[in-house]
Amino acid sequence: MAKPCFFASFLCLLSLLSSSSADDPYRFFTWNVTFGDIWPLGVRQQGILINGQFPGPQIEAVTNDNLIFNVHNSLPEPFLISWNGLLQRKNSWQDGVFGTNCPIPPGGNFTYIMQVKDQIGSYFYFPSLAFHKAAGGFGGIRILSRPLIPVPFDPPAGDFTLLVGDWYKANHTDLKRTLDNGQMLPFPDALLINGRGSNGNTFTLDQGKTYRFRISNVGLTTCINIRFQGHTMKLVEVEGSHTLQNTYSALDVCLGQSYSVLVTTDQPPRDYYIVTSTRFTNPVLTTTSILHYSNSAGKPIDPLPGGPTIEIDWSLNQARSIRWNLTASGPRPNPQGSYHYGLINTSRTIRLANSAAIINGNQRYAVNSVSFTPADTPLKLADYYKIDGVFSLGSIPDNPTFGGMYLQTSVLEANFRDYVEIVFENYEDVVQAWHIDGYAFWVVGMDGGQWSAASRKGYNLRDAVSRCTVQVYPKSWSAVYMALDNVGMWNIRSENWARQYLGQQFYMRVYSPANSWRDEYPIPINALLCGRASGRKTRPLSM
Ligand SMILES: *[C@@H]1O[C@H](CO)[C@@H](O)[C@H](O)[C@H]1NC(C)=O
Ligand SMILES: *[C@@H]1O[C@H](CO)[C@@H](O)[C@H](O)[C@H]1NC(C)=O
Ligand SMILES: *[C@@H]1O[C@H](CO)[C@@H](O)[C@H](O)[C@H]1NC(C)=O
Ligand SMILES: *[C@@H]1O[C@H](CO)[C@@H](O)[C@H](O)[C@H]1NC(C)=O
Ligand SMILES: *[C@@H]1O[C@H](CO)[C@@H](O)[C@H](O)[C@H]1NC(C)=O
């Protein structure tokens, strides 16, 4: 029955993982994570490089591919990579956040084994521990449709990734120390596009063609706006949903969000600016790249196209205009089938309010008054090995309490196959961006003021987009519907990196009493063990 199997062999790992479907292609990646010098703003900084690159290499995959990443941590500190937007179906073991995985120790390696099952779209990966995201280690992910699945636009002449984000001259250890000392981060120093400052990137395009740009906000603290001088953007995809193809001259991209637009080179042949600027900030940071026509007659002409800066209604209206194209295919030819998100009754409403407070003289952030503190053991492992005292279920309420803030390793209890409504309520004056690992959800509504049951009358139950990161405007709410179809331990977090670091996050444990491999894959045999899970056994080598 059982073949002899050597631990370090990939094929052995794969054959033991009943999860990976042998029929679907495998893509193997070997990554070496190091510190190295980068000069994004002209001053030398210590960046996190992947195979010598900043940003890290782009991942290109096709729906249902099996992705095998052997990540070698050559940093002198623990490290993990997480995958923003990858659904990791039945497989929170690979999510790469501290609640699910032990850190890869300095000099160690870990092989992530995952499948991009039934997924398409644009996403990114990032380093999840400490404040590593401020040093790089992020990169783009694109999941293409399978060859026979129609895509609702012609194949573009080129496909570019724009990883945009705010950046500090201070290094990640200094930024982390600021937060650990209970202080807020200063205002960022600049925006970077693909790891470079103004005009550090040139995109060469042929005249008279259409190109795809995948824009992700990989930054730490600010929403951004993007514009292509003299050109419009046709929105085609948002985090795996094909959208109605609206045309925009300026597009807001909040923290952690990804959008695909088509840009047609229908202008006189010269160079143009691609402009990004911070949103809802004062001052406004601006960074440009060059859009270069291959038959260009000259440099771009000033001034830069202006964009929105602090206007909130503009952004809210734009967010509401982003709709799902009901007739376009998704990962499968017919995205809807007989199932329609708007016709299912929700069985539970979870209202989540963010807040800020000072605890023991230190700045903290919370959800429903609970400020998350990491445990000494990944929650997923504590759950699997039934280690008491790491976290307790139901340690975060379903509704805002508006009471005093307290520290807790908060885990929300949830049942497999429930259909839930989640309302993100923002009573603060700062725009929020919320992300849920392991899931995509329908953004059914957002508006200013306080949410109430009557707000449901305005929900879009017809053609809302399904995505994994949603913004919540100041003193506003955003509501989503979500089918709890993915068993596991899943991080729900602010994509504002200082806020998540200081407690604006928690985990949701989606539980199936069946305890079956049909609902959740077994613990990987190569799982790293740490904390109170040290020295346990993963599972027998022959199964
Ligand atoms: C990673 O890169 C460093 C620096 O180039 C090198 O010393 C080390 O051997 C590499 N490790 C692996 C596993 O490739
Ligand atoms: C990767 O880590 C495993 C232990 O998890 C170890 O046995 C193996 O030698 C490591 N491989 C390399 C190339 O460092
Ligand atoms: C929606 O997708 C269909 C099918 O691919 C396409 O023909 C149509 O143009 C799209 N509609 C809009 C408004 O984008
Ligand atoms: C970060 O910068 C400080 C100076 O502000 C320096 O002392 C420290 O060595 C740097 N750390 C890293 C990891 O680069
Ligand atoms: C949803 O609830 C309504 C009112 O309680 C009920 O009439 C309807 O049949 C339910 N729909 C489904 C699909 O269960």
TrEMBL record:
EC number of this enzyme: 1.10.3.3
Signal peptide residue numbers: 1-22
Occurrences of domain Plastocyanin-like (ranges): 33-146, 159-296, 376-513
Enumerate the UniProt keywords alphabetically: Oxidoreductase, Signal
The cross-references to InterPro entries, in alphabetical order and at most eight, read: Cu-oxidase-like_N (IPR011707), Cu-oxidase_2nd (IPR001117), Cu-oxidase_C (IPR011706), Cu-oxidase_fam (IPR045087), Cupredoxin (IPR008972), CuRO_1_AAO-like (IPR034273), CuRO_3_AO-like (IPR034275)
Against Pfam families, the record matches this protein to:
Cu-oxidase (PF00394), Cu-oxidase_2 (PF07731), Cu-oxidase_3 (PF07732)
Gene Ontology molecular function: copper ion binding; L-ascorbate oxidase activity
* Enzyme class, first EC level, given as a word: oxidoreductase
Q: Which family does it belong to?
A: Belongs to the multicopper oxidase family.
Report the protein name in the record: L-ascorbate oxidase like
Source lineage: Eukaryota, Viridiplantae, Streptophyta, Embryophyta, Tracheophyta
